[in-house]
Amino acid sequence: MGETNTPELEKYSLKGHKTSWFTRKLIRFLSDRHMRPSKPESVRQALPKSPELKSEILALQNFQADWIKTNLNLDPRKRSVKLDNINFYPSEIFDTLPDANEDGDQNGYYSQGTWEIGIRQQASQAATLEVLAHELLEGLQGQVVHMQKRPDTGVIRVRQNLVGYINKSKRRAILLNEMVNEMMNIEILDDYRRAQGGKDYLTDINIAYSESVIFLDMFTKEAAGRLGKTAKELRFGLYRGLLTNDFNQLRFVAEAFGGSKALIDLSIWEADNGPELRTFAAPNFGLNGYDKKVNDYFTGQLVTLFENTQVKCDKAAA
Ligand SMILES: [Zn+2]
User: Distance from the CA of 109 to the center of ligand 1, in angstroms?
Assistant: First the structure.
């Protein structure tokens, strides 16, 4: 019975528009014909994918989709990035790709322009797959197509859209989206590790946005304590908001800390800024022990996130 109640996350979102059956068909036609991007040039330089790697990618995608369905009551399968659009590159080639040149330490991307996931080959297969798992989740936030009517001309166009949290100036709150995405990624990979003994993509790996994830974990715990809720409830709300563009999932911040401390208003979410988290945000929200936990993580000690998820960084690479 529960099965039929799981809302499907459409690749073609028609939010806010009244549409007929014909219009929906037309949008699908236009989207498929005219918005499916051509393959980027760089794909020719990608490493070949072994049959084992292909099945591991599919296993990861399936596990993520099942996890989201079970825990968030959303079915994201329609948004899954296709295997053909997932590519791995040698490190020196990765750095030359147009989608990877934003900063030097990027290890993967999901390109909204080409619908491609590109991954930098890491020292270990486990580290490569941790990055892949993150980008697979970003792909679920990317392939949303919607209809837009231009107010001046009345012309209806099919547009691609991103979901996630958007700040007041209508820009994406990039770091917040990344943090929530990586937090969900770690939580799913921890369950994956339990379900598939030996597939450990969280030990001796430098998780992305680690300082920020440690912060957001402590932050949700502190908020939950103040509100008499569980941290898990708040985290899962954040994940749902990320996948459905639901800004209301951030309301707990104002409820727990007061209106002036609204999460989305803080400029720290716009940049990957560890020092600001330490000096400003952590004391401001009463997060005692943040410094110690970050230090523990970067000195290669086992650190517990959420309820009982253990992560350990690769000290040699940190
Ligand atoms: Zn990312």
Answer: 7
CA of 120 from ligand 1 middle (Å) equals 13
Distance 2 CA to ligand 1 centre (A): 32
Residue 154 within a domain: no
Structure tokens that stand for 205 in this block: 């790996």
Q: Are residues 124 and 232 both part of a single domain? A: no
- Asked if residue 163 belongs to a domain, the reply is no
104/180 same-domain check: no
The rounded Å distance from CA 20 to ligand 1 centre is: 36
If one counts the domains in the chain, the total is 2
- Alpha-carbon distance of 292 to 176, in angstroms, equals 22
Mean pLDDT of 282-306: 90
Does pTM top 0.85 for this prediction? yes
* pLDDT (average), residues 225-241: 97
Give the domain extent around 137.
2-148
Buried b (16+ CB within 10 A) or exposed e, 219-231: bbbbbbeeeebeb
Q: What is the pLDDT of residue 212?
A: 86
How remote is the CA of residue 181 from the centroid of ligand 1, in Å?
7
Tell how strand 117-120 and strand 108-110 pair up: antiparallel
Same domain, yes or no: 305 and 210 = yes
CA of 254 to the centre of ligand 1 (A): 26
